From TrEMBL:
Catalytic activity reported: S-sulfanyl-L-cysteinyl-[protein] + uridine(34) in tRNA + AH2 + ATP = 2-thiouridine(34) in tRNA + L-cysteinyl-[protein] + A + AMP + diphosphate + H(+)
Name this polypeptide is given: tRNA-specific 2-thiouridylase MnmA
tRNA-specific 2-thiouridylase MnmA-like C-terminal domain: residues covered: 294-369
Organism lineage string: Bacteria, Pseudomonadati, Acidobacteriota, Terriglobia, Terriglobales
Superkingdom of source: Bacteria
Cross-referenced SUPFAM superfamilies: Adenine nucleotide alpha hydrolases-like
Chief location bin: cytoplasm
Annotated ranges, domain tRNA-specific 2-thiouridylase MnmA-like central: 229-286
Length: 370
């Protein structure tokens, strides 16, 4: 890293991004703190099923206060960029549409792909910063042999966030620093504590930032109510793979593949959601073993370590954030899609989730399961 760079630090108000600011400050870089204000946590308070008072989550106003305090402690300039309208358009509305269509979206990845990195880099240019730095656990470097920027899993695999970063472009990777990529989480907290940062012991955010408590159904109803709309009637039948009707449900938006709770069924053996059919409003249920499958299809692809897929390659694939990468053969298919055949069956391959492809620790690319 060149000496005395001007770096815009993406500050979420959490311990990781705050530790990044402290680390780069100690290295002598000129820093500017940036926070994207994305969602008013209290916006839907008072709607049915939504809490009256909400503690801050990632990118909330409460976290803005924490980030500002850290910037003051480190004596660096700090700015808040209001992106609430864009966040609603690019993340919240697509999230709602996906759930109503019977798919299970990943808003954090949508945010990274379509808003966060783009806006941070735009703002960085405006204030004269050379690059941005974030608190993500990931690594990146330029490989001259391939003439490409490479994204890799971090040293601390337990905190790996590359699953949420597969949509980054070569330009974005070239202007982004991941200073925590070589560090273990306990060491990051220790560094923040030694720097005297007020957020050193702050718990990690575990929830989607705009859905307090993780109640997706309540959020969908409250958000649509605020928009003057009603939750569409998608009630229908719960059926087995043989077509037997075993119950009824109040709406497909309440389900995701692999779900067991909330089915309202009594059975000798546990039943799980196997698939969701938005056209018929049917939800297919069955035994856990029926969730296992060996193939997936993905579209809306982004390639990182290669410019495009031209032949079958061996990879490992993550089909959700906490999924252990599983060995598979990846093949090009029609209409800019890919197919993957796993060596061993995988549980609950879910439409709407991302499939991220790896070779060793490198991110080859990724796409969206359909």
């Amino acid at each position: 890293m060149p000496e005395q760079e001007t770096i815009a630090v993406a500050m979420s108000g959490g311990v990781d991004s705050s530790a990044v600011a402290a680390l780069l400050r100690a290295q002598g870089h000129t820093l500017v703190g940036l926070t994207l204000q994305l969602w008013n946590q209290r916006r839907l308070s008072g709607h049915e099923g939504m809490p009256e008072a909400v503690q801050g989550r990632c990118c909330s106003i409460d976290d803005v206060y924490d980030a500002r305090h850290v910037a003051e402690q480190l004596d660096i300039p700090y700015y808040v960029v209001n992106q609430q309208d864009r966040f609603e358009a690019d993340v919240v509305k697509p999230f709602v549409a996906e759930y109503l269509a019977g798919r299970t979206p990943i808003p954090c990845t949508l945010c990274n792909n379509h808003l966060k990195f783009d806006q941070l880099l735009v703002t960085a240019r405006q204030i004269g910063a050379d690059r941005i730095a974030t608190g993500h656990y990931a690594r990146n470097h330029f490989d001259p042999a391939r003439n490409r920027w490479i994204l890799s899993r971090p040293a601390d695999h337990s905190k790996d966030q590359t699953y949420f970063l597969f949509g980054l472009t070569q330009e974005q990777l070239s202007r982004t620093l991941f200073p925590l990529g070589e560090m273990q989480k306990p060491a990051v907290r220790e560094m923040a504590s030694e720097a005297g940062l007020n957020v050193a012991a702050k718990p990690d955010s575990q929830e989607i930032c705009f859905i307090p408590g993780g109640d997706y159904s309540a959020f969908l109803k409250a958000y649509l109510d605020e928009q003057g709309e009603e939750l569409p009637d998608s009630s229908g039948e719960l059926v087995t793979t043989s077509g037997e009707v075993v119950g009824h449900h109040e709406g497909i938006q309440s389900f995701t593949v692999g779900q067991r709770k909330g089915l309202g069924l009594t059975s000798v053996n546990p039943l799980y959601v196997l698939s969701i059919h938005p056209d018929s409003h049917q939800v297919t249920v069955g035994a856990d073993a029926e969730l296992m499958s060996r193939d997936l299809r993905a579209n809306r692809l982004n390639w990182i370590s290669i410019p495009e897929l031209t032949e079958d390659i061996r990879v490992t694939i993550k089909i959700r954030h906490r999924h252990t990468p599983a060995a598979a053969t990846l093949s090009r298919a029609a209409n800019n899609t890919v197919t993957a055949i796993f060596d061993e069956p995988q549980r609950a391959i879910t439409p709407g989730q991302a499939a991220v492809f790896y070779q060793q620790d490198e991110v080859v690319g990724g796409g969206w399961i359909f």
